[in-house]
């Protein structure tokens, strides 16, 4: 349902009466048991019973729809034919959690039914809200891509939950994380009455929302989606049965294909044996000194990891300056020795002796590991890192409970949304045409990731070719002058332009002019670009044709003296126009709107802000990693001749 980003309007607070009414609808529709008062014998008993019942109902309402819930209208498309769908989302914050979409209602469009659907965030807080089905990890990956759950994909049954009837809302969990639902759907058949699944064809559950879709990733603050927990209490009455089902599933033969023990589990069984032991023994809270040491060693580990993974990249793949938020999220947290949620609450920056990121960065500067700088506004950034420090070079990696996963590896599950503190690196690449193979470049397929070259790579290829020719074509009197041969004359200088004819008649060309011709003639080397996030390499992303499209900030007058700021091209850098618009509305105290950009491809949106807010937009985009050189500001309010930036 939400494979494509929905257009979400501005959030509005939900009135208390409406919240209670909607919560009561949910209680009734999902048949949630409300505690009833015991028979009273006196008037005091009756009053106490009524108060207890009222308190219980209020607690249930708050668990379903917190008191801070807001609502907003949304539009999106669904199905292969991209039918327009409209509805309402309900956004709220559970205790010790972030503001997320908790419920949504599909109201207009093909296949809509007007009922309220829970998101996975609601299911994680309300165990047993809907029947829970299970499937294998391989099938879950297909579900995350938008596929429906087929009958043969069902596991841990029959029998299946009694409530999994046709048209009922159900949840689906990976059998390797059986207590954590990560997929919400609607039964297309009566799953509860299935007597077998192997050999039976047909759809079982149609997906409406799941971990990794656009609704999961959306938040008013622009923060990425929250990953699912490893374990939840309350969803499984008898978890031992599921453990046995996992064992049987791993050892059974399905249609002649044997699942080899050891290859299929990948160490999952070890985890499942160890976790109960960890949960039975209370964690000892580490001292401040131990937390300090863990943070410092995590930073050393991060630098060591960058050197090992990106030995040939400039600065080992690190883009400077480094924002404070990036230090914690990418260089500390993934390398902390955390093996349980209880440990995670201890290893936080506020638990260290530094108390905040600024003082921690200052300490790293004092230790000569980094070079920091204070910016206006009190923010401290890292300008440089000493990768050759003895402590980094001689660092001995320790075992991490959870291997650090680069953002590029998570992209199939969580969409690329530019966060505050995010950084980008733009690579300008060239793909050679068939004219230049095999003389200058190896004959590779257009889809081969190795068939893209930087300008320095093209220059090196050219130099190697020129130096290898026999007889030599480099002028002995001036190495910059190249004598033409058949390949250069027929393949590179093949146009009938006056410039080419003059070079051919002269018989020589300068090396720099030859390289410039290769890079600027798209018939020889087609231009491409790639936007890389930290820890990403060119193997992780697919280069896009053409030069890097820039964000365009257009300042113009409307209706006489009214000035507006129009922003397009945000999607190139993963910036959500709707999220940026919400923040601009608060920061600039101006009205904003998001609509399809006129004359642009479908899905390319334009953000409009009342007033001239070019500086604020530039600042907010830079905070999200979009550098000023990737932004074009066009000022149409000035008279001819004065121009904009």
From TrEMBL:
Residues 548-627 form the SUI1 domain. Residues 2-127 form the Pre-PUA domain. Residues 292-385 form the eIF2D winged helix domain. InterPro entries: EIF2D, eIF2D_SUI1, Pre-PUA, PUA-like_sf, PUA_eIF2d-like, SUI1, SUI1_dom_sf, WH_eIF2D. It comes from the Eukaryota. GO terms for biological process: formation of translation preinitiation complex. Gene3D superfamilies: 3.10.400.20, SUI1-like domain. Residues 130-214 form the Eukaryotic translation initiation factor 2D-like PUA RNA-binding domain. Pfam families: Pre-PUA, PUA_elF2D, SUI1, WHD_eIF2D. GO terms for molecular function: translation initiation factor activity. This is Translation machinery-associated protein 22. It comes from Emydomyces testavorans.
């Amino acid at each position: 349902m939400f494979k494509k980003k929905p257009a979400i309007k501005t959030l509005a607070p939900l009135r208390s009466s409406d919240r209670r009414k909607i919560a009561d609808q949910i209680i009734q529709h999902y048949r949630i048991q409300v505690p009833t008062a015991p028979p009273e014998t006196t008037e005091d008993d009756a009053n106490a019973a009524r108060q207890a019942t009222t308190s219980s109902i209020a607690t249930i309402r708050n668990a379903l729809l917190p008191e801070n819930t807001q609502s907003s209208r949304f539009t999106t498309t669904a199905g292969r034919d991209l039918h327009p769908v409209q509805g309402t989302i309900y956004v709220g914050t559970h205790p010790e959690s972030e503001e997320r979409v908790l419920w949504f209602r599909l109201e207009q469009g093909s296949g809509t039914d007007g009922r309220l659907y829970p998101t996975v965030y609601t299911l994680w807080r309300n165990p047993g809200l809907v029947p829970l089905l299970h499937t294998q990890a391989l099938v879950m990956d297909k579900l995350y891509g938008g596929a429906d759950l087929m009958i043969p994909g069902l596991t841990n049954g029959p029998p299946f939950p009694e409530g999994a009837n046709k048209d009922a809302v159900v949840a689906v969990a990976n059998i390797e994380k059986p207590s954590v639902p990560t997929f919400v759907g609607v039964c297309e058949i009566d799953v509860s009455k299935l007597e077998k699944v192997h050999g039976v064809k047909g759809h079982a559950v149609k997906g409406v929302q799941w971990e990794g879709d656009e609704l999961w990733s959306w938040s008013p603050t622009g923060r990425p989606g929250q990953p699912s927990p490893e374990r939840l209490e309350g969803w499984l009455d008898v978890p031992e049965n599921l453990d046995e089902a996992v064992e049987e599933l791993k050892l059974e033969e399905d249609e002649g294909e044997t699942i080899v023990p050891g290859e299929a589990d990948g160490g999952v069984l070890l985890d499942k044996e160890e976790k109960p032991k960890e949960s039975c023994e209370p964690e000892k809270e580490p001292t401040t000194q131990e937390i300090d040491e863990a943070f410092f060693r995590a930073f050393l580990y991060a630098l060591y990891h960058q050197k090992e993974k990106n030995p040939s990249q400039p600065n080992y793949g690190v883009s400077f300056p480094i924002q404070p938020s990036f230090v914690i999220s990418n260089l500390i947290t993934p390398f902390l020795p955390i093996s349980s949620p209880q440990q995670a609450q201890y290893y936080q920056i506020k638990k260290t002796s530094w108390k905040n990121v600024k003082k921690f960065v200052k300490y790293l500067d004092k230790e000569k590991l980094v070079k920091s700088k204070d910016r206006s506004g009190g923010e401290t950034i890292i300008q440089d890192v000493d990768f050759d420090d003895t402590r980094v070079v001689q660092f001995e990696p320790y075992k991490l409970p959870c291997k650090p996963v680069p953002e590029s590896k998570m992209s199939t599950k969580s969409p690329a949304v530019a966060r505050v503190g995010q950084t980008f690196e733009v690579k300008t690449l060239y793909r050679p045409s068939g004219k230049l193979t095999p003389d200058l470049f190896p004959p590779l397929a257009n889809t081969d990731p190795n068939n893209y070259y930087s300008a320095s790579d093209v220059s090196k290829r050219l130099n190697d070719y020129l130096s290898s020719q026999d007889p030599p074509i480099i002028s002995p009197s001036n190495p910059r002058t190249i004598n033409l041969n058949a390949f250069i004359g027929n393949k590179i200088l093949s146009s009938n332009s006056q410039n080419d004819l003059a070079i051919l008649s002269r018989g020589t060309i300068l090396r720099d002019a030859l390289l410039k011709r290769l890079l600027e003639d798209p018939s020889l080397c087609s231009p491409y670009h790639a936007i890389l996030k930290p820890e990403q390499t060119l193997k992780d992303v697919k280069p896009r044709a053409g030069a890097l499209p820039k964000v365009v900030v257009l300042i113009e007058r409307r209706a006489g003296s009214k000035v507006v700021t129009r922003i397009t091209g945000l999607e190139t850098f993963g910036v959500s126009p709707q999220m940026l618009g919400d923040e601009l509305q608060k920061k600039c105290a101006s009205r904003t709107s998001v609509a399809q950009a006129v004359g642009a491809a479908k899905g390319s949106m334009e953000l409009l802000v009342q007033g001239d807010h070019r500086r604020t937009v530039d600042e907010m985009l830079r905070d999200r990693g979009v550098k000023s050189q990737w932004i074009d500001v066009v000022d149409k309010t000035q008279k001819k001749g004065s121009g904009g930036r």
